[in-house]
Amino acid sequence: MNDSRTIVDQEAAARRMGKRELAAALQQCRTRTLALSAAYEAALGSTLHVPCTPELNPPIWELGHVGWFYDWWLARNPERFNGVRAQHDAPRLPARQASRGQDADALYNSSEVPHDSRWHLPLPDIDTTREDLAQSLTDTLALLDGAPETDEGLYFFRLALFHEDMHAEAAVYMAQNIGFDPGEHAPKTKDHRTPPSFEPLWIEAGECWLGYAGGDGFAFDNELSATLAPVDGFEIDRQPVTWAQFLPFVDSGAYAQRQFWTPEGWTWKAAIRATAPRYVRQGRSGDWERCVYGRWFPVDLSAPASHLTAFEAQAWCEWAGRRLPTEAEWMLATQQQQIQHQRQDTAFVWGTEVWEWTSSPFAPFAGFEPHPYRDYSQPWFADGRPVLKGGSFATAPRMRHRAYRNYFTPERNDIIAGFRSVAR
């Protein structure tokens, strides 16, 4: 079965997990988190120290933050079973760390703790942090056992699970950034990848559900309220642009030509003196090489080009006479392919290797109302960052949903992101 069809089958169930499925998923997710933390400790030592850069967080802070998030929205939250109707600022019960004389909120509340200050906090050591994580999960599972089996009653359990999944994926691309193998989720090799098809797809004009149209189940606030958006017919790549398609843009010298870049993209490129995408270089023989977890390998030309900024995606499209798809076009393509039962000869492959930049800014849909986790979406609507769709090889399968809207600023190339193109 094709990977995209598997995702289609999984995505509806993941948003509607009941108590038994949630309990298993929470434990599986924590197993992954702890395995990643062990890999970090083996590579970095018990302090898990990393340099202070805008792309990174201290890994030991990340671990503590995950446990704090569970406690804040569940064990400490008197409105834990009220779902999206819960008061976001309801007074919280004391945190477990208070018995040690530590203020957990001052350590781990990402809404209040500035990024650069996280390297200077009096954080618990790794063993204590893992003990806090274990107790947090124990408390969460006990609360889940007594929770109402309704969307309201399970909302914060689902939110905490997906939040931890996001941090686990971030740990994978942080390991790539630092240059060590996190012990899981390596990119696919040629032997396991379906050969790319460069034949484009024609998507008939139609209406697509823009946002989460699943009715019941879990949805992030920025996915609501779903509306039917009209879309003209268009031609789109079946799969994300590969290195075989992208690297000629560099080889030809066009990557260094201002005419293909937006003003913002050219400013970014000039500021960091980029001569090629991150993690790729030309070896002594002139062949392209790619760095994977600190080791250099020949570039797999059939692989999707990855760790690209939105600026680089836009520049390639300008050079190739193409453009990035809108979020609505991307959604319509997945919708039509689902209707066609994901036949292999017409497959719109998504969600298996790279996130995909779109040309659509991350903005609220009409009627947006923030959920209790106020800082998940609302603060990021104003700066013009693009929407990314799909998922990467490091994305937890249950996170992959067509309605899901990822969002990063356009200069980010530490994330596992590529793109597909549309005919002008």
Reconstruct the topology from this structure:
Elements: H1 3-15, H2 19-44, H3 59-75, H4 104-108, H5 126-145, H6 151-178, E1 201-203, E2 206-210, E3 227-231, E4 234-236, H7 243-251, H8 263-272, E5 280-282, E6 288-292, E7 295-298, H9 310-320, E8 322-323, H10 327-339, E9 355-361, E10 386-390, E11 406-407, E12 417-418, E13 422-423
Helix pairs in contact: 2-5, 2-6, 3-5, 3-6, 8-9
Structural features, described:
The protein contains ten helices and 13 strands. The radius of gyration is 22 Å and the shape is globular. The strands form five sheets. Strands 11-10-9-12 form a four-stranded mixed sheet. With 424 residues, the chain is α+β, with helices and mostly antiparallel strands. The protein has helices spanning 3-15, 19-44, 59-75, 104-108, 126-145, 151-178, 243-251, 263-272, 310-320, 327-339, and strands at 201-203, 206-210, 227-231, 234-236, 280-282, 288-292, 295-298, 322-323, 355-361, 386-390, 406-407, 417-418, 422-423. α2 packs parallel to α6. The two termini are 32 Å apart.
Order of helical and strand elements: HHHHHHEEEEHHEEEHEHEEEEE
Number of strands: 13
Put simply, the count of helices is 10
Measure the end-to-end span.
Answer: 32 Å
Any idea what the radius of gyration is?
22 Å
Side-by-side strand order of the widest sheet: 11-10-9-12
What is the overall silhouette?
globular
Q: What is the helix content?
A: 25-40%
